[in-house]
Amino acid sequence: MNKQTFAIKGMHCASCVYINEKALKTIPGVIEAVVNLTNGKATLSSDAPIEENKIIDAVKSVGYQAMIENDGTLDEKIKIEKKRELKDLKIKVVVSLFLGALIVWGSFPGIMDFAPSLFKNFYFQFVLATIVQLWAGRDLYRAAISSLRHRIANMDTLVVIGTTVAFLYSIFVTFFPKFFMDLKIEAMPYFDVSTVILGLILLGRFLEAQAKAGTGEAIKKLIGLQAKTARVIRNNKEIDISIDEVVAGDLIRVRPGEKIPVDGIIIEGESAIDESMVTGESMPSSKYKGDTVIGATMNKSGSFVYKATKVGKDTLLAQIIKLVEEAQGSKAPIQRLADIISSYFVPIVIMLAIGTFVGWYLFGSNPVFINAMLRSIAVLIIACPCAMGLATPTAIMVGTGIGAQHGILIKDAESLETAHKVNTIIFDKTGTLTKGKPEVTDIILINKNLIPKFFIGKQKTEKNLVSALLITTASIEKLSEHPLGEAIVKKAEEEKLVLSEVEGFKSLTGKGVTGNIKYQKSNIKVILGNKKLMENFDVSIHQSGHEKLEKEGKTVVFMAVKNLFLTTNHYSLVALLAIADTIKESAKEAILALNKIGIETVMITGDNEATATAIGKKLGIKTVLAEVIPQDKEREVKKFQKEGKVVAMVGDGINDAPALAVADVGIAMGSGTDVAIEAAGITLVNKNLISVVSTIKLSKQTMKTIKLNLFWAFAYNVILIPVAMMGLISPILASGAMAFSSISVITNSLLLKRAKI
Amino acid sequence: MDKIIVLFFGIVSIIFTYWFFFMKKINTVQAEGTVNILVDGGYKPDQIVIPFGKTTKLVFERKDSNTCLEEVVLSDFKIRKFLVLNEKTEIEINPTKKGEFDFSCGMGMFHGKLIVK
Questions:
Q1: Is B59 within 8 Å of chain A by CB?
Q2: Contacting residues of B for A413, CB less than 8 Å apart
Q3: Which residues in chain A have their CB less than 8 angstroms from residue B18's CB?
Q4: What is the mean pLDDT of chain B?
Q5: How many pairs of residues across A and B have Cβ atoms under 8 Å apart?
Q6: Contacts of A619 (CB under 8 A, 6+ apart)
Q7: Cα A671 from chain centroid?
Q8: DSSP A638-652
Q9: I need a labelling partner for A602 at 20 to 30 A (CA). Which of A32, A333, B16, B32 fits?
């Protein structure tokens, strides 16, 4: 069954619902049409997807409007608009700079001697300058005038006032030279000033528009990752359908080399999958039946069938895109100052320009009027509020984009900014530093003679003995549901061992399990559990080496069997199995890297002191907070904050959520619970802890870029505006400097792409 | 004489510039459900009172080709949206906090304010 949902505009009453439903049901192929007044949406059910224009027409026929969302068209529209804008700008830049060059040739002392006399003619210059001013500068005028109507001044206002003054003065000089000559002012127009300034400003715009497109590339790349079609199995037939038509529950076949269309769970087959595009993890991961696969990742070797669980807006990729978009829409606190300044900036520059004119007119050298005018024009032109406005957002856009490519999802600009100040990182232990699943780490054989021999081949090698032990223990533990038992069973499964039959299984709560291993006619009584169980059966564990294992933070499971060599009902210790939650491969490396850059690392856990200290030591974490109940994690974070530390909390569980929220930066592991991800400012899609280091590095690099941008933008204005007021820079040079300043800020942000994180 | 005239007009122009840009009246509207905002040399209206806890649809219609205004940013709501020229772009927000929230163009040159009551 195919479903289509879209919004209907113009509905306000229950009868509208009825009218629309009726109209939609008349479309051939529609089985059911349901219109909801509350959310203004309609859902069509049909066997095959209904064409959009049929829906639009049907709704239109009863006087309403169907709003069929199509994100592709919006992107298309933006693309078309950008392309047109760039083309338009390019023509204007070329024409105005060319005409400007002709005027300069005809008016600049030194080179004008070689110019054709036509170029020296003021009327000819007037015609060329007018074309530039009114045609190339049209958009600037429109923008400036419409802002002035709102009593707002911006970049365009400055350029327009500056060039208009030069242009009008030149017209006046051209047509009424006598007026100026009577005032003993040389009748010299400044058409070159107005034209070249406009040309250079437009060139700056052109380059800026091109460079700016590069800052938003990450999102486009992410959207481009999406597969277009899916091979769905419906009614035992494989059909290729558009990805939009895939629904949760669909069975999808993926062949080698194909992209996985949506998120789901493998139900048949196995493969190695390259997930680097979504998680940033470079090694392909092996996936088997029951494992989850992520949409937009690449299937490498095997062929498999999986069940779609998340489609459309719910897929991981869609969520990632949404998060990155949101982060790029948020504002970094550092931007606040730039925002306040830029909202007062332009009017202040206008006032400064007026002041400059008055100052030079009153105290300047002759010809006072011209000097005063050119200097105030330079002040207007050189001021560049754009550089300030672009400094932070462009760097944030690039920074969040790079993060996403490395599997670091930053929810808001504030988290990205704060991360560079972090000097203490608190790690939750279970599931974050460790895998969160207990594993058998050591097997110590105490009495090899008592290991049930029938599971061993002819060779009594150490390996075979261990296998026999695993078969025995796993066969019994298979019947228990204890996590420690699961670890043993898992170990046996990993070694591909065939388990044996068990009789008389008994679970003794808080102690362990017992049972009889049956093999042909033999029957061996096995007990498996902790010290208490051994005590109950009078098994001596003295000098078995269990203390050493326990000191390492491991849980020891003792295995004993009824000793057939003795006539009495006596059990003897056979082996020790040490079980521990194993440390993630990336944990040690990450901690080392963090310690190296001077960040204090802290581990927080509910484990007992001994276990916690042992793990902390292994990882190189000095501060270990053991026996912390989940509710107190938040308080521990606050304690560090009270000491003046900037704290990042890394966790994955529901119980970490309050601590993640209260920390200066909350970092959730992507494999963690939704609650943790919700509470955190940053999510690491891969399970690799090195990403924590990368996050800090990314934040530092981004902040470095932002600070350099802001420094450049402020220094530029603070230094060059007074320079222009003093009359040390000509208006044409001023326009060149201004165009350069915006571009340099964007280029600097784009350089962030090369940062190694 | 001419210097006195220039000085006088200079001071008057500076005062006028100050008054013109910094002492303008703010155009406030009360929104219910949907509010249309004209993007042309700024935002009109530029101060909008919207209800707390309810979804309000902001319909931006961009008439200005100035690239500065091509994006609208509602940073408190984590929204940065491209406004296609001569088209209406809808943004739905559901404020969960009361207070005043700025919105601006992509470069932070043009500003507007949402007041959640």
A1: no
A2: 75
A3: 347, 351
A4: 87
A5: 126
A6: A433, A583, A587, A588, A591, A603
A7: 16
A8: HHHHHTT--EEEEE-
A9: A333
Q: Spell out the domains of chain A, with CATH numbers in brackets.
A: 2-71 (3.30.70.100), 72-214 (no CATH), 227-310 (2.70.150.10), 403-435+584-702 (3.40.50.1000), 436-582 (3.40.1110.10)
- B28, B73, B80: best to mutate for the A interface, most A CBs within 10 A: B80
- Selecting among A428, A607, A652, A664, the annotated active-site residue is A428
Residue-level pLDDT at A40: 67
Q: Do A329 and B79 touch (CB under 8 A)?
A: yes
Read off the pTM. 0.76
CA nearest to A488, candidates A544, A557, A405: A557
Which among A218, A246, A222, A391 has a CA at the least distance from the CA of A307? Answer: A246
Angle at A79 between CA A78 and CA A81, to 5 degrees: 65
For residue A412, what are the CA distances in angstroms to A55, A324, A326, A706?
A: 39, 8, 7, 15
* HEC-encoded secondary structure of A268-327: EECEEEECHHHHCCCCCEEECCCCEECCCCEECCCCEEEEEEECHHHCHHHHHHHHHHHH
**B66 in contact with chain A, both atoms CB, cutoff 8 A:** yes
Percent of chain A past pLDDT 70, that is, above it, reads 96
For A565, the token pair is: 């060599």
Residue A704: predicted pLDDT: 95
ipTM over 0.90 threshold: no
Which of B42, B78, B108 lies at the smallest CB-CB distance from A339? B108
Q: What are A29's two structure tokens?
A: 């192929």
User: CA-CA distance, A546 to A529, in Å (whole number)?
Assistant: 13
Contact A666, A692 (CB under 8 A): no
- Cα–Cα distance for residue pair A602/A580, rounded to 1 Å: 20
Distance CA A276, CA A464 (A): 39
Cis omega (within 30 of 0) for bond into B45: yes
Q: List beta partners, residue B92.
A: B57
Residue A428: active-site member: yes
Helix (H) or strand (E) holding B44: strand B43-44
- Among B15, B17, B57, most A C-beta atoms within 10 A, so best to mutate, is B17
**CA-to-CA distance for B68 and A518, rounded, in angstroms?**
81
A342: nearest CB among B13, B79, B109: B109
